Amino acid sequence: MRNFSADYLRRTRAGLWASRDALAALDLPSRERVLDAGCGTGEFTRVLAEEAGEDCTVVGADADPSLLRVAREETGLPVVAGDALRLPVRDGAVDLVACQALLVNLPDPAAALREFRRVARETVAAVEPDNGDVAVESTVHSEVTLERRVREAYLDGVETDVAMGDRVREAFEAAGLVDVTTRRHYHRKVIEPPYGEADLEDATRKATGAGLADHETELRRAVGDEYDDLRTAWREMGREVVEAMQAETYRRAEVVPFDVVVGHVPERGFK
What we know:
Blueprint: H1 6-13, E1 33-37, H2 43-52, E2 57-62, H3 65-75, E3 79-81, E4 94-100, H4 109-119, E5 120-129, E6 135-138, H5 141-157, H6 167-174, E7 178-191, H7 197-208, H8 210-213, H9 216-223, H10 226-246, E8 252-264
Parallel strand pairs: 1-2, 1-4, 2-3, 4-5
Antiparallel strand pairs: 5-8, 6-8, 7-8
Helix pairs in contact: 4-6, 5-9, 5-10, 7-10
């Protein structure tokens, strides 16, 4: 299981659920008990609670106590400490087990889904990014080329399947879930004048190389000593971005596809 900081999760999840149409298949208004597995800082837990309504109990679970503290403080929702492969919940205790950007960070997604199936009485759902199908446009041309190079290296160097795509559905079926459906949801992030504080922070992280350093281990695994040259080019690109922002000529759009996959638990006698 890969670990992430609270700041990283906030940056990458910001604005993801501006539209919630893709969550319709979770049938949240009908739920009484929902578990968000691998909840992190609780952004998705909050979305689930808002969509389910006051009559539903939504609980977040995560193995990282520091992230659970943030989730508890920022959402006010109940949380429990628990690994995705060993949830501290009895069989069939909740209507729905859901997760967001969790399976792509696990070495054996199907094992986690089998655990979710054990805990869920009716439904299991996962919202997973397809990091191999991200589209980027930028007025700083070197940004598009470098981001593609970094993304390809990251996909080669990471030790889990972060671009599962259709394989999410396959993992659901391998875990014994039935009537599996999938719907693609697009997270579009646009940076343009007037720039917000988060936009300025992103540019600074490019110029200092901090953003690249978040994935140094995976990148070095793929490109070796070339990482240092890549980091130099990345910082130069970041300085171009900062200069363009100062001139208010910088515009960037990124689209990350997420697959919302929903499966159902067979009769309890099913093995």
